[in-house]
Amino acid sequence: MWSSDPSHSFLDPRARPASSTARQSLEHRPAALRAADAGEIMAGWPDPGSPLWNPELRWLLDRSIALVRADLGGHGWLSPGPELPRERGPAWRHLYVYAYLALVDVVRGYHRDHDIADAVSWTTLADLGRNLAVDRRMHREGWPVMQSWLTLHARGGVYELGRLQYQRGDTDIGVHIFESGPMTPDAVTASLDEARAFFPRHFPDERYTAFSCGSWLLDPQLLEYLPEDSNIVRFQRRFELEPYEEPEGLDADAEVLRFVFRTLTTPLDQLPRRTVLERAIVDHLKAGRHWHWRRGRFPI
Ligand SMILES: CC(C)(COP(=O)(O)OP(=O)(O)OC[C@H]1O[C@@H](n2cnc3c(N)ncnc32)[C@H](O)[C@@H]1OP(=O)(O)O)[C@@H](O)C(=O)NCCC(=O)NCCS
Q1: Which residue in 82, 90, 183, 262 has a CA-CA distance of 20 to 30 Å to 235?
Q2: Domain locations in the chain?
């Protein structure tokens, strides 16, 4: 799709795919963008001469691509560049999306070098579309975290295998849970089994001893509200929790609102109370209590 020649700038007209191919690719292949997002992204494409792109934005796009690319194969969280005022237009709103799209060929090459099946590769990269759709539902409130999260996909740091995503690490494989209906214990077990086979096969030089996870889903306070047989409780039971520590720079209450209600700013009284979890989240906060972000692990 895009050239994988490292000297080939994304802003070079030759790097832009023919429009119909690009549209098809955007909607079906690398990113599985929903129609509204794909339309907006196509319309704001950084074509040479596009009035939507000023020289500073073009400079930032090229630098962001270079910065993420320089850490190809890395698996830490990375900021691709500064947070931008996204309401200023499509170039500002989607600058990092263009950077990730420009890196699709690069990361596909990395996947190929690790003998990773096309299906895993495309499924993993399709998280871009999923995140953009969530961000749209969140009226663009969700992006700052996604901006950094999506650099993992663009560097070969994360893989989606069945119901879960897995982040390469030093000794642990990080487990992430994306929104896609219930996470039944069977689906989780099948996915973990897939990961147990995937990493030794495709990353034989990396030695993993545990799966680990940091999440609001691991907060034992949820046990006060959720039934014993709920998927969240059963997921939690797999992990041995690390002692609670206030995470630096992370507001667990806000993260719970993000993942359960997909809003960070709606007043508690206006949040829906349809499910046992929704009621629990609001009642807990209204009682003046806080949710905790907990970390846990279990041996591979
Ligand atoms: C993780 C997730 C898949 C669990 O959903 P699940 O498998 O349905 O979970 P449970 O079986 O434990 O659900 C128990 C109850 O909570 C409700 N519930 C679970 N997740 C919910 C959510 N995100 N929003 C609203 N209600 C939710 C269920 O509907 C059920 O309530 P009900 O019996 O009144 O219908 C779901 O919460 C989700 O998609 N979250 C977004 C992604 C996320 O949080 N990832 C972790 C990031 S750190």
Answers
A1: 262
A2: 13-156, 185-299
Judge if the beta carbon of residue 230 lies within 6 A of ligand 1. yes
Question: Other C-beta atoms within 10 Å of 194: how many?
Answer: 18
What is the phi-psi region of residue 162: left when phi exceeds 0, alpha when psi lies from -120 to 50, beta otherwise?
left
Q: How far apart are the CA of 231 and the centre of ligand 1, in A?
A: 8
pTM over 0.70, yes/no: yes
Q: Is the CB of 215 under 6 A from ligand 1?
A: yes
Amino acid symbol at 140? R
- Closest CA relative to residue 219, chosen from 272, 296, 142, 164: 296
Contact 154, 71 (CB under 8 A): no
CATH code 3.10.310.10 for 185-299: no
pLDDT tens string 169-192: 999 999 999 999 999 999 999 999
